[in-house]
Amino acid sequence: MAEGVLLVVSAPSGCGKTTILKKLMAEISGLEFSVSHTTRQARPGERDGVDYHFVSKEAFIAMRDQQPSGFLEWAEVHGNFYGTSRRDVEALLAVGKDVVLDIDIQGAEQVRTNADPVTVFISSDLG
């Protein structure tokens, strides 16, 4: 079985990447969305394990500090941590799944140093 493809989609905040990805995921079968880990509180309607894996700051730091790192990429934003589990992504790729990451530009750069993804950058500049 061939290994899956890692697809990284990044954009500045507010460019609509989440909207684009929801449409893409609905129309292309076989894509797996990577659910990020975060230390922030769930917002109304968000579900653990679906929208994010909601974890404590201590659990996040322990995962981040594993060797090799437990995250393909991670960042601290407004006092909360966000990261993509290396183990989760590698397990899906190993069984031939194509994995989509919805991350910011800095996260995409980190992934490029830790893996060999296909990268897509969405720009809001129309003109």
What does this entry show, briefly?
This protein is α/β, with parallel strands linked by helices.
Largest sheet: 4 strands, parallel
Quote the distance from N terminus to C terminus: 44 Å
Mean pLDDT: 91
Low-pLDDT runs:
none
Radius of gyration from the alpha-carbon trace, in angstroms: 14 Å
Which CATH C-level class is it?
A: Alpha Beta
- Order of strands, main sheet, comes to 2-7-1-8
User: In the residues, how many domains can be counted?
Assistant: 1
Number of strand segments:
8
Instruction: Please work out how many helical segments DSSP would assign.
Output: 4
Q: What share of the residues lie within helices? A: 25-40%
Domain Guanylate kinase-like: 4-127
EC number: 2.7.4.8
Keywords: Kinase, Transferase
GO molecular function: GMP kinase activity
Give the helix/strand layout.
Layout: E1 6-10, H1 17-27, E2 31-33, E3 37-38, E4 53-54, H2 57-64, E5 71-77, E6 80-85, H3 86-94, E7 98-103, H4 105-114, E8 118-121
Parallel strand pairs: 1-7, 1-8, 2-7, 3-4
Antiparallel strand pairs: 3-6, 5-6
EC number: 2.7.4.8
GO molecular function: GMP kinase activity
Organism: Candidatus Electrothrix communis
